[in-house]
UniProtKB/TrEMBL annotation:
The protein's name in its UniProt record: Bile acid:sodium symporter
Source superkingdom: Bacteria
Record keywords, A-Z: Membrane, Transmembrane, Transmembrane helix
Residue stretches in coiled coil: none
Residue spans crossing the bilayer: 7-29, 35-55, 67-88, 100-123, 130-153, 165-185, 206-225, 231-254
Length: 329
């Protein structure tokens, strides 16, 4: 019982809630907002630089040959998820309102996670090399595909005046360029990065918290909590739960239907059902502005915590199931 409670209230979740409360009560304004905006840009660049430096080419080679699995995971991430979001529009638009629905649709076009997808796959006894390759490729492709899907499906623009292509160019410069630079320098800094993975993982969380504070501060100043009621938050949480349940069922069914092994099915479930907060929060900062930014982040923050809790329980179940199968053989 304590373990499940701990899933609900891990350290990062508690700090995230504290940051949300701080942004609500003490939002950054004026020169303070300008300072945090500049700091956020630098933190995002450093975050993606380190993501590039962490990516091992050996891991890419080891998993890249499993193209059927990768195509299915990418299809779930960048096709199935967006289609579910679009199909639910007649229900979600009147239920949540336009801004929160746009946030749900933004959630649906994001790339998958890297660290947690690999960790859950390993715990469950899945195909870890394939998970490393699939998750890393999803993160890279998402830098281009997510802004493109936002431009095609959502018809919103970050700067309220520039073209969709300029938004794609801006996010590529802010995210893809540091990523490529980091990966190109891996021969020089890769050993140090691998040695300090635990410490560097805190960079992800710190960057997320910083962007959340900066983004929510701007939205609070714009009147976020006057437009998003407690009832709307409750309904949004239910929508995120339902969306995750549908995707988990579909990824599990697709893995079985295409005849993948048990290990590959596990990889497909965890790789195809998760959405990245580490990538999504900086992207929202680039793609959205003004009153749209806060509602764009809320579905992602809620979905992220739910997916961690549910997938942790599922990974433990898969592990026990695998141990039972081994004992039976």
């Amino acid at each position: 019982m304590f373990g499940y409670v701990r899933l609900l209230f891990d350290n990062f979740t508690l700090i995230l809630l504290a940051v949300i409360a701080t942004a609500t009560l003490l939002p950054a304004q004026g020169q303070g907002a300008e300072f945090f905006n500049g700091l956020t840009v630098a933190a995002i660049a450093l975050l993606f630089f380190m993501h590039g430096a962490k990516l091992s080419r050996q891991a890419i080679i080891a998993g890249a040959t499993h193209w059927r699995l990768h195509l299915l995971v990418f299809g779930c991430t960048f096709v199935m998820f967006p289609l579910l979001g679009l199909a639910a529009k007649p229900l979600l638009l009147p239920l949540l309102g336009e801004k929160l629905y746009m946030g749900v649709l933004f959630l649906c076009v994001l790339p998958g996670t890297v660290q947690s997808a690999i960790a859950f796959t390993a715990l469950a006894g899945g195909n870890v090399p394939a998970a490393v390759c699939s998750a890393s490729a999803s993160s890279i492709l998402g830098i281009i595909l997510t802004p493109l899907l936002v431009a095609l499906l959502m018809q919103v623009d970050a700067s309220e005046g520039s073209s969709p292509l300029s938004s794609i160019g801006a996010i590529s410069m802010q995210l893809l360029l540091p990523f490529v630079l980091g990966h190109s320098l891996r021969p020089l800094i890769g050993r140090w990065v691998d040695k300090h993975k635990k410490q560097l993982s805190r960079l992800d969380q710190t960057s997320i918290l910083l962007v959340v504070y900066t983004a929510l501060s701007a939205s609070v100043v714009e009147g976020l909590w006057h437009t998003v009621s407690p009832m709307a938050l409750t309904l949004l949480t239910g929508v995120c739960c339902l969306l995750l349940a549908v995707v988990l069922l579909l990824t599990a069914w697709l893995g079985r239907s295409f005849g993948f092994s048990r290990e590959d099915q596990i990889t497909i479930v965890f790789g195809g059902s998760k959405k990245s907060m580490a990538t999504g929060v900086p992207m929202a900062q680039v793609l959205f502005a003004g009153p749209l930014l806060g509602p764009a982040l809320l579905p992602l923050m809620i979905f992220h915590q739910i997916q961690l809790m549910v997938c942790a329980v599922m990974a433990q179940h898969y592990a026990r199931q695998g141990a039972g199968l081994t004992a039976t053989d």
